[in-house]
């Protein structure tokens, strides 16, 4: 299973699968914080004839849709000190929110809402297309690539 890649963590990884098949991983961290991560078993290798599709979808879920800086589901949590992130690899895409343990339920619900709702319009498509093209230019820079693979990024 996909979550097996997280079994090497030094802290317990809690795996919850919702009725719709969504798998939520939660890891308790020091300082009364929790990291809740949703991992989707689709990454760049599943793009087929649409290279970049998984990365593009990641951006649309987390950053696009003409919402401004945060997805509406995160707005009430921002003042509570949450940190949100997303990534796309070759084999998976993940979305995570870190915050205080006392907000675990709200964090898990917000993450589920982000992953379950997607509203794409032409303006957000164009905005995210430009962002991804810029990121591709950055990663194709030989200096950036070398630093990235050396772990400097």
What attributes does this structure have?
alpha+beta, 153 residues, 22% strand, 35% helix, 5-stranded antiparallel sheet, globular
Describe what you observe in this structure.
The chain has 153 residues and is of the alpha+beta class. It is 35% helix and 22% strand. The chain has a 5-stranded antiparallel β-sheet with strand order 1-2-3-5-4, covered by helices on one side. The chain is globular. The mean pLDDT is 75.
Give, in spatial order, the strands making up the sheet with the most strands.
1-2-3-5-4
Average the pLDDT over all residues and give the rounded result. 75
Topology, number of strands: 5
Can you tell me the residue ranges where pLDDT is under 50 for at least 5 consecutive residues?
A: none
Helical fraction: 25-40%
Order of helices and strands: EEEHHEEHHH
Overall outline:
globular
The proportion of residues in beta strands is 15-25%
Secondary-structure-derived class: alpha+beta
Major sheet, described briefly?
5 strands, antiparallel
Q: What is the straight-line distance between the termini?
A: 28 Å
Per DSSP, the total helix count is 5
Which radius of gyration do the C-alpha atoms yield?
16 Å
